[in-house]
Amino acid sequence: MKLFLLHFLAATAASAFVMSPPHMWTKLILTHHWPTTFCEMEHCQSTIDSWTLHGLWPDKGIECNSSWHFNVSLIEDLIPDMDKSWPDLISPESPKFWKYEWQKHGTCAAKAESLNSQHKYFSKALELYHKADLDSVLKKFGITPSKQYYPFAHIEEVIDSFYGIKSKIQCVHPSKNAVYQILGQIEICFTPDFSLMDCEKESSKKPLNSSVKAEAKSGFSVCDPNVPVYYPPMI
Ligand SMILES: *[C@@H]1O[C@H](CO)[C@@H](O)[C@H](O)[C@H]1NC(C)=O
Ligand SMILES: *[C@@H]1O[C@H](CO)[C@@H](O)[C@H](O)[C@H]1NC(C)=O
Ligand SMILES: *[C@@H]1O[C@H](CO)[C@@H](O)[C@H](O)[C@H]1NC(C)=O
């Protein structure tokens, strides 16, 4: 696991540090989702049993340039990998999801020179996704879909100690007082020059209060450290 970090460090040491203007984003969030959980929420059907990309999101800005239209022919060469690594779980075969992610997040990421084209943005997201290789990391440390619940701390410990950063792990909370929560989304964060960094400054150890939990019922929210985690097998 140290080799992995060295790889990242070596790759980024070569690029000069550039001061970013204050309006600029300062973090990139590589967001993975678990297709079974996603499809449970969105009523889609998925036969994918690996963590796929949800997006690469700058921490600041949404829809930064509405006149910069998505054009799938600019990323033609990436499509085979996009189909596998960044599938649209709701409408497979359609570029709708990529278009949405480009308009919402890509146009903001593109404020950085390193990401200022559709090809740069999508290929960098794929590159980071393959480097992080979250799916293999979880498998390697014995975290696989299971009917038995995992303690949240165990999953967090595996991910955070492997990457040497604080990740953000999100769950679906089936109901306010459910005895379990469903693992859904995992975020790994990067600096503007693509080295790993903490997703959140403060630890997520403090328990969620019940009104937050109720509000989160219909979507992903940070997992509650005190509630067992269900990592659902493919249906
Ligand atoms: C928005 O995108 C268009 C099309 O690529 C480009 O010509 C324009 O300079 C961009 N505007 C800003 C503010 O970046
Ligand atoms: C999309 O990109 C291709 C390749 O650069 C270009 O030929 C085509 O005109 C573009 N389509 C639109 C709608 O901009
Ligand atoms: C719980 O969280 C909500 C929403 O953030 C907040 O308004 C409320 O005051 C909190 N309640 C307690 C007891 O901390």
Automatic annotation (TrEMBL):
Coiled coil: none annotated. Keywords: Disulfide bond, Endonuclease, Endoplasmic reticulum, Glycoprotein, Hydrolase, Lyase, Lysosome, Nuclease, Secreted, Signal. It catalyses: an adenylyl-uridine-RNA = a 3'-end 2',3'-cyclophospho-AMP-RNA + a 5'-end dephospho-uridine-RNA; a guanylyl-uridine-RNA = a 3'-end 2',3'-cyclophospho-GMP-RNA + a 5'-end dephospho-uridine-RNA. PROSITE patterns: RNASE_T2_1, RNASE_T2_2. The active site is at residues 54, 101, 105. Pfam families: Ribonuclease_T2. GO terms for cellular component: endoplasmic reticulum lumen; extracellular region; lysosomal lumen. Gene3D superfamilies: Ribonuclease T2-like (3.90.730.10). One of its GO terms (molecular function) is hydrolase activity. Residues 1-16 form the signal peptide. The keyword Protein biosynthesis does not apply. It is found in: Endoplasmic reticulum lumen; Lysosome lumen; Secreted. GO terms for biological process: RNA catabolic process. Belongs to the RNase T2 family. PANTHER family: RIBONUCLEASE T2. This is Ribonuclease T2. The lineage of its organism: Eukaryota, Metazoa, Chordata, Craniata, Vertebrata.
